[in-house]
Amino acid sequence: MKPRTKARSIALQALYEIDLTEHPFEWVWTNRLQEENLDKNQADFAYQIISGVAPIRHVLDSFLAEHAPEWPLDQIATIDRNILRIALWEFAVYGKTPVKVAINEAVELAKEFGSESSPRFVNGVLGSLASRKNEIQQALRKAIASQTTPHST
Questions:
Q1: Would you say residue 121 lies in a domain?
Q2: Cβ atoms within 10 Å, residue 66
Q3: Is residue 153 part of a domain?
C-alpha cells in the first residue's frame, strides 16, 4: 500500500470510530498511533485528514446530501459516508489533492472497506461533486469560516 493511501486508510478507520462512538478525535488518534506503524509523513497526513474532517462533518454532510438525494445520509453506510467526507475534504478544503486523485483514492478505499456496491456509489457521488468543485469550495470555505468566526451580539 502506498504511504498516502495507508494514511487515508488509518484516517478512515479513525473517522469511522468517531462516527460510531462519538469519541473525541484526539483520543481516537492517540490510540491509532499506538496501534499503527506510521512514518512521520503518514502520521502527519492522517492527522490532517482526521483533524480536518471531524470538526466539519455536518458541513461536509450537507454537501453530500445535496449530491446523493436518493440516499439520505442516515441510510448511507457509515464507511461510505466517511470515504466521501475524506475525498470531499481533500479536494474542496485541503486543496492539495487533485480531484482525480481524491476520487481514485476514495474508490480504492471503498473497494477495500465498503460493500460490493460502494466503489460505484462513491465514484458517482464524487463525480457529481467534482463537476461543481469551485462552487463547492467557495461554499464550504464560507460555511467553515462562519463556524469558526465568533458572532457579535
A1: yes
A2: 13
A3: no
User: Rounded to whole angstroms, how far apart are CA atoms 78 and 62?
Assistant: 15
Amino acid at 4: R
First to last CA, the chain: 51
Which positions ≥6 away from 105 have C-beta within 8 Å? 4, 5, 8, 87, 90, 97
What is d(CA 46, CA 62) in angstroms, rounded to the nearest whole number?
Answer: 23
Residues 6+ apart with CB under 8 A from 66: none
Domain total in the chain? 1
- The range of the structural domain enclosing residue 141 comes to 3-147
User: Distances in Å between the alpha carbon of 148 and those of 9, 91, 141, 143?
Assistant: 28, 20, 11, 9
Encode pLDDT of 114-146 as tens digits. Answer: 999 999 999 999 998 888 888 888 888 888 888
Using a 10 angstrom Cβ sphere, with 0-12 exposed, 13-18 middle and 19 or more buried, the burial of residue 101 is middle
